Amino acid sequence: MANLALSSAGVSVILATSSDDGFPPENMIDGDPQTFWVTTGLYPQEFIVSFPAKVNADTVSIQGVNIKTLEIYKGINSKPTDFEQICSKEIERKENENVTENIQVNSPITHLKIIITNGYDHFVAISSVAVTGSAIN
Amino acid sequence: MTLLRAKCIIAGDDTVGKSALTQVFHSDGTHYPKNYLMTTGIELIVKSITVPNTKATVELYIYDSGGKEMFSDHVISNWDGIDVFLLVFDVTNPQSLINCEKWLERIKDKSYNNHLMGAVVANKIDLKGRRDVDTNAGSEFAKKHNLEYFECSAKENLNIEEPFKAIAQSFHSHYEECLEKFKCV
């Protein structure tokens, strides 16, 4: 199914707790798996992905390296407030390998907040955040 | 510009001068605590260091940790996710160097992957007449554990910044290594 979380569709990252000019958070929603956002030290690390309008989300897929534990929250208001937790996950360890984590959402969302609560190394890279589902007319 | 953030633990026996070292570093040499005030838990201070020859800055979150054994459980419970560390001993007290082994084990327990980025710091080198640990003993210990070795005096503000610079530099190098790996997957 098509990925709704693309900057070309007006989606943006409105908050990220780390930023290195060379590896901006927009890299997670540019549709290119070669580019990535990198955390620059300490945990937790957090970012918020915002859609221009509410969408019906089926799944969220997060692809990254060194993520150990993460939490995902959804926001259904037009403003990024009142987040509700969807899940809290521990990801299996794979040395220097991209791991994709698929999470069922099955809900309308306007914002997604993702918190990386811990990593397998000092730094984590995330190459893609993808959301499947459908637009709300 | 790159801004890295690192959790930096200052470990070692009580009275070796961890707080003095930390405070002299934090104040750029303007504040040396003349009276001894035991650290019973953790004092957190933040200071940025520019990594030489790069556009990167490392913000060190320095956890000056009480060294008295009585508080060790409490102190160590705050060490999760150590990035870098300084292991401090007192050159007039050989036992404080021996105990560095114990402190290092505790640090390893809390590190990612047992991946260590730290340095050994011999403090109080101004006390020349009372010195009881020679350079060789200190540097041998550091070498054995693959750590850098520095001698300093918090009181004389001698060589204080160097160990902090060194760990900031290793942290930055590790970041660069990680980036290279991330680019390949």
UniProtKB/TrEMBL annotation, chain A:
Residue ranges occupied by any F5/8 type C domain in the UniProt entry: 16-118
SUPFAM superfamilies hit by this protein: Galactose-binding domain-like
Principal location: other
Cellular-component GO terms for this entry: centrosome; cilium; intraciliary transport particle B
GO MF annotations, alphabetized: metal ion binding
Stored InterPro entries: FA58C (IPR000421), Galactose-bd-like_sf (IPR008979), IFT25 (IPR033558)
Keywords: Calcium, Cell projection, Cilium, Metal-binding
Gene3D superfamilies xrefs: Galactose-binding domain-like
Localization annotation: Cell projection, Cilium
GO BP term (any one): intraciliary transport
UniProt keyword Transmembrane helix, yes or no: no
Stored Pfam families: F5_F8_type_C
Annotated family: Belongs to the IFT25 family.
Oligomeric form and interacting partners: Component of the IFT complex B, at least composed of IFT20, IFT22, IFT25, IFT27, IFT46, IFT52, TRAF3IP1/IFT54, IFT57, IFT74, IFT80, IFT81, and IFT88. Interacts with IFT27. Interacts with IFT88.
Functional description taken from the UniProt entry: Component of the IFT complex B required for sonic hedgehog/SHH signaling. May mediate transport of SHH components: required for the export of SMO and PTCH1 receptors out of the cilium and the accumulation of GLI2 at the ciliary tip in response to activation of the SHH pathway, suggesting it is involved in the dynamic transport of SHH signaling molecules within the cilium. Not required for ciliary assembly. Its role in intraflagellar transport is mainly seen in tissues rich in ciliated cells such as kidney and testis. Essential for male fertility, spermiogenesis and sperm flagella formation.
PANTHER family assigned: INTRAFLAGELLAR TRANSPORT PROTEIN 25 HOMOLOG
Name of this protein: Intraflagellar transport protein 25 homolog
Source organism (scientific name): Trichoplax adhaerens
TrEMBL record, chain B:
Keyword tags: Cell projection, Cilium, Flagellum, GTP-binding, Nucleotide-binding
Pfam family, one: Ras
GO biological process: intraciliary transport; vesicle-mediated transport
Top-level taxon of the source organism: Eukaryota
Main location: other
Listed PROSITE patterns: RAB, RAS
GO CC terms, sorted: cilium; Golgi apparatus; Golgi membrane; intraciliary transport particle B; motile cilium
GO MF annotations, alphabetized: GTP binding; GTPase activity
InterPro entries referenced in this protein's UniProt entry, alphabetically: P-loop_NTPase, Rab, Small_GTP-bd, Small_GTPase
Localization, UniProt: Cell projection, Cilium, Flagellum
The keyword GTP-binding appears for this protein: yes
Statement: the UniProt record of this protein carries the keyword GTP-binding: yes
Family classification: Belongs to the small GTPase superfamily. Rab family.
Protein name: Intraflagellar transport protein 27 homolog
Source species: Trichoplax adhaerens (Trichoplax reptans)
Organism placement in taxonomy: Eukaryota, Metazoa, Placozoa, Uniplacotomia, Trichoplacea
